[in-house]
Amino acid sequence: MLLDDSIGFLINRTGRRVSQLFALRLSPTGVTTEQWSVLARLCEEDGISQKDLAHRVGKDQTNVTRILDQLERKELIVRRVNPEDRRSYLPSVTDSGRRAYEEIAPIEENVIRLISEGIPPEQLAALKELLSRIADNASSHLNDDRPE
């Protein structure tokens, strides 16, 4: 199979290009694309555990902890001890974090509009469905012990 026929290669290349464009547009805000994904998820589901947050943004817990450290230094989030498990923390968005979210959300919407130019809404919906199915299929095979 040619590399340009590989779904994995095409998804990866597309993701890198979209991330590069979004990072370029985000740079004046001082928030990175990684920080944005965590901040945006927390704005949607404030106060979830760091473990759940890591799962919901598709990053490992160590990486999420590093990102939360950065967001906390920027005073966009705070972490409080989880009253149900004193070994874990519950990150919450600050007022400054909500203002940053409100500033950045239109930037992301603009990037999505730019990369979606000329693509009918029904094709975008189908693409989202297919990407979700591909991700689910990959996830279901991550723990397979058999090399292929």
UniProtKB/TrEMBL annotation:
<protein>
    <submittedName>
        <fullName>MarR family transcriptional regulator</fullName>
    </submittedName>
</protein>
<dbReference type="Pfam" id="PF01047">
    <property type="entry name" value="MarR"/>
</dbReference>
<keyword id="KW-0238">DNA-binding</keyword>
<dbReference type="GO" id="GO:0003677">
    <property type="term" value="F:DNA binding"/>
</dbReference>
<keyword id="KW-0805">Transcription regulation</keyword>
<feature type="domain" description="HTH marR-type">
    <location>
        <begin position="4"/>
        <end position="136"/>
    </location>
</feature>
<keyword id="KW-0804">Transcription</keyword>
<dbReference type="InterPro" id="IPR036388">
    <property type="entry name" value="WH-like_DNA-bd_sf"/>
</dbReference>
<dbReference type="InterPro" id="IPR036390">
    <property type="entry name" value="WH_DNA-bd_sf"/>
</dbReference>
<dbReference type="InterPro" id="IPR000835">
    <property type="entry name" value="HTH_MarR-typ"/>
</dbReference>
<dbReference type="GO" id="GO:0003700">
    <property type="term" value="F:DNA-binding transcription factor activity"/>
</dbReference>
<dbReference type="InterPro" id="IPR023187">
    <property type="entry name" value="Tscrpt_reg_MarR-type_CS"/>
</dbReference>
